[in-house]
Design brief:
The complex is a heterodimer of chains A (259) and B (362). Chain A is built from eleven helices and no strands. By secondary structure, chain A is mainly alpha-helical. In chain A, helix 1 (2-30) packs across helix 11 (231-255). Chain B has 362 residues and is α+β, with helices and mostly antiparallel strands. Chain B has eight helices and 18 strands. Chain B has helices at residues 72-80, 122-132, 137-150, 166-178, 196-213, 224-230, 248-253, 258-263, and strands at residues 32-43, 46-57, 61-65, 87-92, 95-96, 107-110, 184-188, 216-221, 233-238, 241-246, 268-271, 278-281, 287-289, 298-309, 313-320, 325-331, 344-349, 355-356. A six-stranded mixed sheet of chain B has the order 6-7-8-3-9-10, with helices on both faces. Chain B has a five-stranded antiparallel sheet with strand order 13-17-14-15-16, with no helix packed on it. In chain B, strand 15 (313-320) and strand 16 (325-331) form a beta hairpin. The chains are: A mainly alpha (259), B alpha+beta (362). The A-B interface holds A 159, 161-162, 164-173, 175-176, 179-180, 183-184, 258-259 and B 80-82, 101-103, 108-109, 111, 113, 115, 117-119, 128-129, 132-133, 160, 162, 176-177, 180.
Chain lengths: 259, 362
């Protein structure tokens, strides 16, 4: 009985992981395909040609680099502002703190399309031309809630006597923050940054409303799939996969909490 | 009187300390490491400290003893600089530092939960202070090494705090404070988090370390045994004021008030002979016997209510006339053999062993 149970469990797990990762495996496989025609969807033969010049497709590369830069900038802004918000919400006592916390959590449940249309409405209303600025503002905005809430949770478990101890040992307040609080917040900062980065990097809905002439990777891919599927798409996607797997591996020592 | 007691009880009701019999430490104000003048602190309606004055001499082991909420922790936070008083002055080494931030004060605090930095090794925890002072590296290494030696933790310098036992963490906290050679070390209930056996060990460790480094220790505790066994002098706090300051012996034998008397140990409070006030008679001063009191002795009849055998000693609870409750503690060997519950015996004492308490102020 027990044996049968564990065999069934193993089969179910294998099936679930298979379904989850089969498309990814296929995608990586096809980055090594030598396709005929514009659609790299039928296996023809193995080649390393696609990987020799991953950025050969100029429009694709530009979109990729745009998304990369955008995600980095949005992450930086979101973690910085979110961190300050989290500090204020956790450390300071002021009127309206509860309401702000509620407002901060709202975007998590709010459908993205609502935010997207609202932003477009706003930008048109204040006559701000859609472009890099509106895109960055929008992305930082929806990353902000996630970053702030992640860091707030981290700060809530923080023993505030540690900072007092640092001051007592001769460190002025700012130094105490930098030598004690900040290092202990690194796991939280890393988690917030990873979350923000991936949210921004693969965002389609908000970008499609606020990007103007700018083409991010998700926007480009959505458009390109109608015309062609070049192996470069699979190559870049595999690269992104590789990078995120590497980041995850890098972050895993911190995920177990403090060592 | 040889010298002024180093501690004066201040405020409007300036009462003198103890009975003046050779109090430990002393000297004039300027020699005080910690001096507080009429310090008051309120939190909204709550009065935490009311006109507190206190002065502690160099090298003293001084304790603030009192129940929770008596203001002892507030006093410590004010001295450390984590809080500011609304009135009064705080002098450290003769300098007025009432408004100075914590990092500019020549005192260090050992936190009740130790507050060790979890991301730093034992060595780096101890080196935190010297690095804040930007000590040159060789000097820093020497000082940290010495400090760890004093608390006997040199072997564990590479460990992280979470890899240490409670007692070891306590030692790290001590070393981390002592390495700065503070004018005074402030200890906030340092032994409260330890289990009873370890607490006794750490108690003697504290005393040894204080003797070794010769730094002024200011201990805050609600544990009377701790305060009595460790302190050169101690102060009993009650309701934001100092009730009395003196040596452990003075406070135990000659408490000013019933509050101090009962806080420092089991106490028999008998009506005074002339009917005014109360007399304190410690349980170990009371002798039980079948024979009536001899010449020069006092005595009264009481019925044995309870016998509690405690090994070396036996605690006897008795009930006298007018429902007077008494406690006697004696060595098991010295008690009458045939003492039974319900029996009437003589409780005898030497009048010189009893002590007249001040009537409580209305």
């Amino acid at each position: 009985m027990n044996r049968i149970g564990s065999v069934l469990l193993g089969l179910a797990s294998a099936l679930a992981f298979g379904l989850l990762y089969a498309p990814v495996v296929v995608m990586v496989l096809f980055s090594f395909n030598a396709p005929r025609g514009r659609f790299n969807l039928v296996w023809q033969g193995f080649t390393l040609e696609n990987w020799r010049q991953p950025l050969r497709d100029a429009a694709l590369s530009e979109a990729f680099l745009t998304s990369l830069g955008l995600a980095l900038a949005a992450t930086l802004l979101a973690v910085l502002l979110g961190g300050l918000m989290a500090l204020a919400l956790e450390r300071a006592r002021f009127r309206g703190r509860r309401s702000i916390e509620l407002l901060l959590a709202l975007p998590l449940t709010n459908p993205e399309i609502v935010l997207a249309t609202a932003l477009l409405n706003l930008f048109v209303g204040v006559d701000l031309p859609r472009g890099p600025l509106t895109l960055l503002l929008s992305h930082s905005l929806f990353c902000l809630s996630y970053a702030a809430l992640t860091l707030k949770a981290r700060l809530a478990g923080f023993d505030s006597t540690l900072e007092l101890a640092a001051q007592d040992l001769g460190a002025p307040p700012l130094q105490a923050f930098c030598r004690v609080t900040l290092p202990l917040l690194v796991p939280g900062l890393l988690a917030a940054a990873l979350l923000s980065f991936s949210l921004s990097f693969d965002d389609y809905v908000v970008s499609s409303f606020t990007a103007g002439e700018i083409v991010t990777l998700p926007l480009y891919l959505a458009g390109a799939f109608q015309r062609e599927i070049s192996p470069q798409i699979q190559v870049l996607s595999s690269l992104v996969l590789l990078v995120s797997a590497a980041l995850l591996a890098l972050a895993s020592p911190f995920r177990q909490g403090r060592p | 009187m040889l010298s002024e007691p180093a501690t004066q009880i201040g405020g409007s009701d300036c009462r003198e300390s103890g009975s003046g019999s050779g109090s430990g430490g002393g000297g004039d104000e300027s020699a005080a490491v910690i001096a507080m003048h009429n310090v008051s602190r309120r939190y909204g309606q709550l009065v935490a400290l009311e006109g507190l004055s206190l002065s502690i001499a160099a090298g003293e082991f001084f304790s603030l003893l009192g129940p929770s909420g008596c203001g002892k922790t507030t006093t410590l936070r004010l001295i450390a600089g984590f809080d500011r008083p609304q009135a009064g002055r705080i002098l450290l080494q003769g300098r007025d530092l009432t408004e100075a931030p914590p990092h500019r004060r020549p005192v260090n605090l050992v936190f009740q939960n130790y507050a060790l930095f979890p991301h730093l090794s034992v060595w780096d925890n101890v080196a935190f202070g010297p690095r804040s002072q930007r000590l040159p590296e060789p000097e820093l290494r020497r000082r940290v090494g010495e400090s760890l030696e004093v608390v006997r933790l040199s072997e564990l310098a590479r460990r992280r705090p979470h890899q240490l036992s409670g007692g070891q963490q306590q030692r790290v906290a001590l070393a981390r404070a002592l390495v700065n050679a503070p004018a005074a070390l402030l200890l906030d209930e340092p032994l409260a988090a330890l289990d009873p056996d370890l607490r006794r060990t750490m108690r003697s460790e504290l005393k040894r370390i204080q003797r070794e480094v010769g730094i002024t220790f200011l201990l805050v505790t609600h544990d009377r045994e701790e305060a009595l066994s460790l302190s050169d002098r101690l102060a009993v706090m009650h309701g934001g004021r100092l009730e009395q300051v003196g040596t452990p012996r003075q406070l135990y034998d000659q408490p000013r008030s019933a509050v101090v008397a009962t806080f420092l140990g089991a106490a028999n409070l008998l009506p005074a002979v002339n009917g005014e006030g109360l007399r304190l008679l410690r349980p170990e001063r009371l002798r039980l016997s079948a024979a009536p009191p001899g010449q020069g002795e006092r005595g009264l009849r009481a019925r044995v209510r309870e016998l509690v055998f405690q090994g070396a000693t036996v605690e006897v609870r008795l009930c006298g006339a007018d429902d007077l409750q008494l406690i006697a503690i004696d060595t098991s060997a010295a008690l009458p053999d045939n003492l039974r519950i319900g029996e009437e015996v003589w409780c005898r004492w030497n009048p010189a062993d009893s002590h007249l308490l001040e009537a409580p102020q209305s």
